[in-house]
Design a protein that fits this description.
Rossmann fold, alpha/beta, seven-stranded mixed beta sheet
């Protein structure tokens, strides 16, 4: 994905802000608790979250009572995030790109949840390191769809092949691809010279969703949003029909949440 494609796809999320807030999943609390424990985060700590969207990870991070700044470049998503955390004085939402944010090296934790790949590759490691105090931690998370596909998700492949054969469904990853994701992030952090001792852990879980919520989830995926309106409508209608007529109106959406963490190199 080149820079122009990255920008074009990244710009789509605000167009589905309400759906994003309603149906995008949070991250498993056990995984977040492990993250916070490993990074030694407490009430006196400072966290910088990159691309916080409407607060899918922010909610779990805020339980630590640490001071948290959430950066979100989409005006629509940032507005909803600010609304969601209006009663959490330790959480500040700033509508700004990470690449443009004035960094000071005083954060204990910098975290990017399903947002790291949207950042400019040439600066994301160096700027994350610059934001951290000595010994601070960078955490990168993603949610993946494990394979092999079963049930509805195997059944619906025919719909994609028929209606959008050209579309790469990059929200879905095979088990080997998710393992490669963890290795790729670890290698990038190490090769940058700014981070040491990366490690990867993951957790599998699932989300019970109505057909309306599942279609809402699809509407937040950038590759789906860039489809022509009539194509997207046909794709969604076909999937809704299968869920409602063959699966009782609900699907169990499997997830594999993956976390890669590394410490800032004391040399930098």
């Amino acid at each position: 994905m080149n820079e122009q494609q990255r920008q074009r796809r990244g710009d789509t999320f605000g167009q589905a802000a309400e759906a994003y807030d309603r149906v995008r999943p949070d991250y498993p609390q056990a995984l977040v608790d492990h993250l916070l424990a490993q990074a030694r985060i407490g009430a006196t700590s400072r966290i910088l979250e990159i691309g916080c969207a409407t607060g899918q990870l922010t909610r779990a991070l805020s339980h630590s009572k640490a001071a948290l700044i959430g950066l979100e470049p989409s005006s629509e998503l940032a507005t909803l995030a600010a609304r969601n955390f209006a009663d959490a004085p330790q959480v500040q939402i700033i509508e700004e790109r990470f690449e443009d944010y004035a960094i000071g090296g005083h954060f204990d934790l910098v975290v990017a949840a399903t947002s790291f790949h949207w950042l400019e590759p040439q600066v994301r490691c160096s700027k994350a390191a610059a934001a951290l105090r000595e010994g601070g931690t960078l955490a990168v998370l993603t949610n993946a769809h494990p394979t092999p596909y079963t049930g509805f998700f195997a059944r619906v492949q025919e719909v994609y092949e028929r209606i959008v054969p050209q579309t790469t469904r990059n929200e879905d990853h095979s088990s080997s691809e998710t393992e490669r994701w963890g290795l790729a992030i670890s290698d990038e952090l190490l090769s940058s010279g700014f981070f040491v001792d990366p490690f990867v852990i993951d957790e599998s879980w699932s989300h019970h969703m109505s057909s309306s919520d599942y279609i809402g989830l699809l509407s937040t995926f950038s590759d789906h949003r860039l489809l022509p309106d009539n194509t997207r409508a046909a794709l969604f209608a076909a999937q809704r029909k299968i869920i409602d007529t063959e699966y009782g109106g609900y699907v169990e959406r499997p997830y594999r949440s993956i976390l890669c963490m590394a410490q800032r190199n004391a040399v930098h």
